[in-house]
Amino acid sequence: MEKYVYMDNSATTPVKEEVLKEMLPYFTSKYGNPSSVYSLGNESKNAIEIAREKVAKALNAKPNEIFFTAGGSEADNWAIKGVAYANKGKGNHIITSKIEHHGILHTCKYLEKHGFNVTYLDVDEYGLVDLQQLEEAITDDTILITIMFANNEIGTIQPIKEIGKIAKDKGVLFHTDAVQAVGHVKIDVDDLNIDLLSLSAHKFYGPKGVGALYVRRGVKIDPLISGGGQEGNRRAGTENVPGIVGMGKAIELAYEDLEEKNARLIKLRDSLIQKIFDNIDYVRLNGHPTKRLPGNVNVCFEFIEGESLLLSLDMEGIAASSGSACTSGTLEPSHVLLAIGLPHEIAHGSLRLSLGDFNTEEEVDYVVEKLVEIVARLRAMSPLYEDVKEVK
Q1: Class assignment of domain 17-254?
Q2: Which residues 6+ apart lie within 8 Å of 171 measured at CB?
Q3: Domain ranges (residues) in the chain
């Protein structure tokens, strides 16, 4: 294949060379167990603490509020189950939204089977929660609000500061799944009134299999994994030292010149959206037009099926997605697209193109060129499109 264009950075990103270079010694020469008392173990322990400081600095948190996990899904599970069980004496009600990642939704469904009540908030056509509906949903039994920072499919960024203030004023803990936002959006947990926050390294050019949960000091939370005394007795298991070191370096790099990188990415994103709309008809943009992640483009093409579109793009050397990578194997339309009001037949024609640090304008032009050809070919096989053309 002559050309390969990767536009699925929301699913995962490549590990940057600087990150890999920092990780490598901890696989070979610096392999000590961080719990060991000798110098080789202390070397690993010190590396973990340096990475913890880097993650904390990126969020304006304190190092002792950062706990390393095996990824975003574990962090989400821990935040929700940990808070639920630690605070069940206060109440059994949790509030979330209908467009959360399955790491949140499936955890909430699990808790519903174990005596907890969950309210699933609606969103508007852009995927934004209604702050008034949120406030009205809070009861005396509410112990946790969990709303994602930015949606993994349509890229919409929620009014996190306002949500956090509502939670704070009502004395309710606020967790945000910020897996898609960390490394791409400036985040200050104090300014945004966040009590717990999930993140994952592989979304910002770090390794897979490592993430973290920010837990504000004083928040009651039960451990998810019991065993040894690692992570301040809150998360058992020998630490993934190379992964944690890589995460520290990756988050440090992500927040260097963030505004400059985002300005380039937004320009590229908007160029891609404009060129799609200029060259293809019967297409709609999903998510908020401006309150969205810098690299996210999510569109629906009417009269075609998303899986056929993805396979055709892959044959042209273009990697994209029809939604979340975690659910790409299902034939059901995206729960996010249904929640923003799209009918099944349109939701099935969705395409997510997520741009990253290595994408170029030349690649944007190539993707649009191939999209025009593929959409035209697929629509030529659709009797519905033929009917619309005749009417037009």
Answers
A1: alpha beta
A2: none
A3: 5-13+257-391, 17-254
The pLDDT score that the predictor gives to residue 325 is 47
Q: What is the pLDDT of residues 325-354, one digit of tens each?
A: 455 455 678 999 999 999 999 999 999 999
| Residue 260 burial (C-beta neighbours within 10 Å; 0-12, 13-18, 19+) | exposed
* pLDDT score, position 331: 65
Across 144-172, average pLDDT: 98
Q: What is the pLDDT of residues 282-308, one digit of tens each?
A: 999 999 999 999 999 999 999 998 999
For the segment 141-164, the average pLDDT, to the nearest whole number, is 98
Residues facing 67 on adjacent strands: 213
Residue with tokens 């080789």: 40
Catalytic residues: 326
> d(Cα 123, Cα 118) in Å, to the nearest integer?
16
What per-residue confidence (pLDDT) applies to 383? 78
The CATH-assigned architecture of domain 5-13+257-391 is Alpha-Beta Complex (3.90)
User: What is the CA 87 to chain-centroid distance, rounded?
Assistant: 26
Across residues 103-119, what is the average pLDDT? Answer: 98
In Å, how far are 117, 187, 251, 260, 385 from 266, measured between CA atoms? 40, 18, 20, 10, 32
CB 120 within 8 A of CB 343: no
CB atoms within 10 A of CB 290: 9
Inform me whether the pLDDT recorded for 86 exceeds 70. yes
CA–CA gap between residue 42 and residue 35 (Å, rounded): 8
How far apart, in whole angstroms, are the C-alpha atoms of residue 201 and residue 12? Answer: 9
Q: With bands split at pLDDT 50, 70 and 90, how would you rate the model's confidence at 389?
A: low
Residues whose CB falls within 8 Å of the CB of residue 348, separated by 6 or more in sequence, listed in order:
305, 306, 333
- Secondary structure (DSSP) of 93-148: EEEEETT--HHHHHHHHHHHTTT-EEEEE-B-TTSPBPHHHHHHH--TTEEEEE--
Task: Say if CB 10 and CB 152 are below 8 A apart.
Answer: yes
Q: At residue 259, what are phi and psi to the nearest 5 degrees? A: -60, -40
On whether the pTM is more than 0.90, the answer is yes
Structure tokens at 237: 């298991």
| Segment (H or E) for 174 | strand 173-177
**Helix, strand or coil for residue 269?**
helix
Contacts of 44 (CB under 8 A, 6+ apart): 26, 30, 31, 32, 33, 34, 239, 241
